Amino acid sequence: MVTRRRVLGATLATTGASLFTAAALTPLFQARSAQAGTRPASAPLFTTALPVPPVLTPLSTAGGKDTYALTLRRARTEILPGISTEVLTYNGHFPGPTIKARSGRPVVVHHRNALEDHASVHLHGASVAPTDDGAPMDTFAPGTSRTYTYPNRQPHAPLWYHDHAHHHESEHVYRGLSGSYLLTDDTEQALPLPAGSYDIPIALRDARLDERGRLVYEMDDALGRTTLLANGKPYPYLQVAARKYRFRLLNSSNLRFFHLRLADGGPITQIGSDGGLLPAPATLDSLWLSPAERADIVIDFSRYPVGTRLVLENTLGPGSPEQVGQVLRFDIVRTAPDPSSVPAVLRTLPPLPTATVERSFELRMTDESGAPGAQGLVNGRVFDHDRIDTRIRHGASEIWTVTNPNTLVPHNFHLHLVQFRVLARNGQAPDPSESGLKDTVRLLPGETVRLQATFDTYRGTYVYHCHLLDHSAMGMMAQMRIS
To answer: Which CATH class is domain 62-187?
Structure first.
């Protein structure tokens, strides 16, 4: 019998605190492919075009702000070709529509809850007042509405919005309640990066679909969710021109980590992460995305002849290569002029202030076997809305050391309100992909990350948690109060 322990152990194995390599995973995939099952016959590879979520149109632009309306409601969509699947949506879209915003210009979003559950909408990565943060217990009931105001006083960043109602968040997001919120500013706009139709958001995730095409949700179901989706479609293709494209990658899955590469081993240029552009572009042969992380990348298709078909691969399980080894395919179908370029310097980040406080945090599952009743803990405690776990002086800059002591189960760490800088991973300097601003950072089994955050914006109570949402729903979340 293939257990959760055996598969996660094989897939996310580490030697001490060192990272495993993509090459080392390939034989592990092949060894268990016969046991892992096959992709549903109704989810063939590369037969569906990659959709691009629509950009939401504001109801009003008066008064120096953009006002939008979204309805949380059930809808039906074709995930598998020819099969109608019920999903949870914002305005009927799976995933939700994209909101485009600009630094210094506020956005107001009116949400109406047409679901049967309470909901809370969190703008992930945003610096907002506590009343607009979409806190896990700050929900609005079925049949009611809630208005959130986003001042957008922060620099450009590829933010995203999703449900955060505690004990519902994992299922709500799994069933579709998420969408992109792309915040730009003059710094970003001044650069000659690919733009317009050559700038495409792609939300990656996984799903478990039964024989009738229905989404199946079970808590902590890492092994069952083995159909990969890009913008809500399984294994799509995208027709591209032989020129540079910018892709805003978002891992919107609950549990799945992605390790992505081009099938030919070609270079991927990462230009940004959670908190916007990196200081300088990083040329990579592969990249990591844990749940909620974003990677802003440029791929130059001009090095390929027209007619080339290039697959974006994933080298991580759970699942067999047939199920999870291919994400989407780029089909180079034409030539096109390309005035874009990627400058050697993208932005300048201010120097880090002197930290005055250091803290340590441990994220741990009580049972790594997948047995019912397992709890997620932060520093040995399950989330309690009535408890303040960390008290922070407003204006302080702090260094937090975050550790995953589990031997099989990965985690990651997300801070509400602030972007932070990664100082070290397992005692070593972070690689260039983590050189920018972050709000979520991966923690493979046995890993430790040091980060620095400055709490100089809003006062109030906010949460920090593992963004493997099944884990946070199981209690791996805590509260900080800034005063």
So the answer is: mainly beta
